[in-house]
Design goal:
This protein is of the alpha+beta class. The chain is 37% helix and 21% strand.
């Protein structure tokens, strides 16, 4: 998440980010290789974001779940949207080359969920290249013409001067181990967030 990346840098927390997708972050938090995991995973059964995924992955750990932000999530497309993509089903009808994220990432799971009502699956798309490890990598694939579109947030589209088609809003959250929440890196980040990001 670009806002989270900015906050970590500006707060002086010395917390480093690793882009590995929502499920990958939860796995790293579960086995002690991370202080926190960021995620945006909708549970198909409950219709809630993040709670079920955190419960499944971290049942044996004490964690705090923090709402980070509601954000738009959709398709980044080339400047001027040359294929005229307006909705998710257009990816197939326009024969768009689609950059994609790794399995288990919130973006990839959202793409699959949005395709279903259009009667499409991920295999119906013209996927190009290896899965992108981050939204930035995905955006660069669209920017340099290796792909026509891919799932990402508008905060990525703006600095790369890409266009954005918005099919969904997602709840982005942080799962933080209780012990890590009381450690010095969090002590730097939390006051910064209260001072700079509160309404």
């Amino acid at each position: 998440d670009p806002l989270l990346d900015w906050a970590l840098q500006e707060s002086g927390s010395d917390i480093a980010m690793l882009a590995c997708g929502s499920a990958g972050g939860l796995d790293r938090l579960a086995d002690g290789r991370a202080l926190a995991a960021s995620l945006h995973l909708l549970d198909a059964v409950t219709g809630e974001y993040n709670v079920a995924a955190i419960g499944r992955a971290l049942a044996a750990r004490e964690v705090v779940a923090l709402t980070w932000a509601w954000r738009d999530q959709g398709l980044v497309v080339a400047p001027g949207n040359p294929l005229g993509l307006a909705e998710i089903g257009d990816l197939k009808s326009a024969r768009a080359r689609v950059a994609h994220r790794q399995d288990g990432s919130g973006s990839e799971l959202l793409l699959r969920r949005l395709l279903a009502p259009a009667g499409l699956g991920i295999d119906d798309l013209a996927l190009v290249g290896e899965p992108a490890k981050s939204e930035t990598d995905l955006g660069l694939a669209v920017l340099d013409g290796r792909a026509d579109a891919g799932p990402a947030a508008p905060a990525l589209a703006r600095p790369l001067k890409l266009d954005f088609v918005r099919p969904a809003r997602v709840l982005f959250a942080l799962a933080v181990g209780c012990r890590a929440a009381c450690q010095p890196p969090s002590h730097s980040l939390c006051p910064f967030l209260r001072a700079r990001c509160s309404p």
